[in-house]
Amino acid sequence: MPTTLPIVKGHGTGNDFVLFADPEGRIELDDEQYAALADRHFGVGADGVIRVVRSANIPEGAAILDEDPAAEWFMDYRNADGSRAEMCGNGIRVFAKYLERSGLAEIPAGGTIAVGTRSGVRDIQRSATGYQVDLGRWKLEDEGLVRTRGGEVARPSIGINVGNPHRVVALASRNELHELDLTEAPHLDPVPPEGANVEFVVPADPMIKDGVGRITMRVHERGVGETLSCGTGVAAAALAIRYWAGPDAPNHWQVKVPGGMLGVRMFATQDGEHVSLSGPAELVFSGTITVAGDE
Amino acid sequence: MPTTLPIVKGHGTGNDFVLFADPEGRIELDDEQYAALADRHFGVGADGVIRVVRSANIPEGAAILDEDPAAEWFMDYRNADGSRAEMCGNGIRVFAKYLERSGLAEIPAGGTIAVGTRSGVRDIQRSATGYQVDLGRWKLEDEGLVRTRGGEVARPSIGINVGNPHRVVALASRNELHELDLTEAPHLDPVPPEGANVEFVVPADPMIKDGVGRITMRVHERGVGETLSCGTGVAAAALAIRYWAGPDAPNHWQVKVPGGMLGVRMFATQDGEHVSLSGPAELVFSGTITVAGDE
User: Fold this and answer.
1) φ, ψ for residue B280 (rounded to 5)?
2) Is A287 in the B-facing interface, judged by CB distances under 8 Å?
3) CATH code at A177?
4) Whole-prediction pTM value?
5) Same structural domain for residues A115 and A52?
């Protein structure tokens, strides 16, 4: 059945999303309809689509409310092909801004709001640049080699898992970063079982200034291609560079991506070290679209 | 000054546009604001932006009204970088649909509507698949060679000018077409003074069915990259294949592009042979955006 939806388009450092509110969980779109919304030429166009739904009104929400009864709202995230995704580090900041702007929720001054996602509850707070989200625990994985299209050498990389798998490669200069050909997926050796996003990182000069680490990166997302920004990739890049930099490296990083600047912090919690991501969230325009359906 | 605009997003075979009405010619956006609207991640996203303005209310319109006093409406077309463009074969069909849908104009049954563009007046009529536009006269230009990225051979091409310059290359098989690497601009020899769009074309089997020529093409647009569709490129491709096919070739062609199907007709007029383009025009969604400005 065709469905007419009020939508809002937003982005976080150029990683962009179509959002719509469905508090009662009554709007059922199939994968094809989600993909039609995300199509950049035939639809609204975005990296992903976010349905804003009360946790109580989505099947995945029961486990969320068990984990944290305060997680009233759930981020039902879809990739551009319509498939479900667990989390999106840039998307959840835009989600928070949408909640606040539309009056559905408010983040108390100095406090946090709990948001349900398919990878569990995430705590979000306001930050100087927009919003900060606690991405939870992370994990060091295997080393490997990465060769980009047309590249003459395979470069060493380290695996970092931030809920999803990443391979991070350090480069010596901005020029080297600029000249990388990311029009094809980099070849990974060994091949990770579920693939990986690949981050290429260059330290700023000096890398550490006023106690803050500074790096620039480009990213190739599995199944997507090069993107302007990848939230978990930014966290993985900072974690990898801190690992290589040794025990005196800072726990606060600024990461420049093609779409803007993001902040990463590592901090101790009762269940181990967490990593957080902070940065801007923008709502760009609102509109109405009728999504065709074949029922 | 920030400007709040009601916009409509539309496309013709995937070639997509942001449209807004400014009948009185009062909305002045600078190139940067047009580019911001067209940005796919930070704005609405489109191949181009179309301002719908009365010819009497735009400086370029005086010459238009001299040429044809019936050309009440002018298609003020901007490229995605904000620069002015003369004409767009897919855009003008979407322009016509916008005029009709918004009640600004009506195309009489069996008749045409005259629309002003920076390359003169264009006549549009309804067609079985949407709208048909007379692109005017065309011109055969020089032969040359075209080599695509990673290509082992330079292929022969012919130059066709349909208001803008094209180079058309014939390929032997769909497989060859499919495997072309168009992630970089093809290398042209000789280099045309203003560059050229390059069309790669394969005939269907049989090429001519029921008196209609049938071809499939991919296109690389200068300054843009590979696109889903290029209206003038479709016309150029059909003209080139007809030229190669010899005197018995038909004057009606169907051209399949990645974004859909378009029709091309060649027909005699008092001022020489004209070529027309026909195909669908879709309006996808409407909305409101506030465009930032620095005045």
Assistant:
1) -75, 160
2) yes
3) 3.10.310.10
4) 0.93
5) yes
A269 and A255 within one domain? yes
Verify that B285 and B169 share a domain, yes or no. Answer: no
A91/chain B closest Cα distance in angstroms: 13
pLDDT in tens, B220-239: 998 889 999 999 999 999 99
Peptide bond into A280 cis (omega under 30): no
Q: Which residue out of A46, A230, A234, A277 is catalytically annotated?
A: A230
- B141/B262 same-domain check: yes
Nearest CB to B45; choose among A45, A259, A286: A45
Q: Where are the alpha helices (DSSP H) in chain A?
A: 31-38, 61-67, 91-101, 174-179, 231-245
Q: How far, CA to CA in Å, does B167 sit from each of A250, B88, B235?
A: 56, 17, 12
Can you name the residues that pair with B40 across neighbouring β-strands? none
B295 pLDDT band (50/70/90 cuts)?
A: low
Q: Do A284 and B289 touch (CB under 8 A)?
A: yes
Average pLDDT over chain A, rounded to whole?
Answer: 95
Q: How many domains does chain B have?
A: 2
**Do the chains contact at A40 and B44, CB–CB below 8 Å?**
no
A7 and B285 within 8 Å at the Cβ level: the answer is yes
Q: Which residue of A has its CA nearest to B181?
A: A183
Of the candidates A15, A41, A288, which has its C-beta nearest B259's C-beta? A41
Q: Are B108 and B151 found together in one domain?
A: no
Instruction: Give the model confidence (pLDDT) of B70-95 as tens digits.
Output: 999 999 999 999 999 888 999 999 99
- The answer to whether residues B159 and B235 belong to one domain is yes
Total residue length of chain B = 295
For residue A267, the surrounding DSSP H or E stretch is strand A260-269
Active site residue B231: no
Run of H or E residues at B237: helix B231-245
How far B176 CA lies from chain A's nearest CA (Å)? 19
Q: Is the dihedral of CA A227, A131, A195, A244 positive or negative?
A: positive
pLDDT tens digits for range B109-151: 999 999 999 989 999 999 999 999 999 999 999 999 999 999 9
Residues A238 and A172 in one domain: yes
CB A99 within 8 A of CB A113: yes
- Are B78 and B167 contained in the same domain? no
Domain that holds residue A103: 3-129+281-291
What is the spatial distance between Cα A128 and Cα A212, in angstroms, rounded to a whole number? 15
Q: What is the ipTM of this complex?
A: 0.92
pLDDT of residue A295: 52
Does any CB of chain B come closer than 8 Å to the CB of residue A289? yes
Q: For each of chain A's 295 residues, which pLDDT tens digit applies?
A: 788 999 999 999 999 999 999 999 999 999 999 999 999 999 999 999 999 999 999 999 989 999 999 999 999 999 999 999 888 999 999 999 999 999 999 999 999 999 999 989 999 999 999 999 999 999 999 999 999 999 989 999 999 999 899 999 999 999 999 999 999 999 999 999 889 999 999 999 999 999 999 999 999 998 889 999 999 999 999 999 999 999 999 999 999 999 999 999 999 999 999 999 999 999 999 999 999 886 5
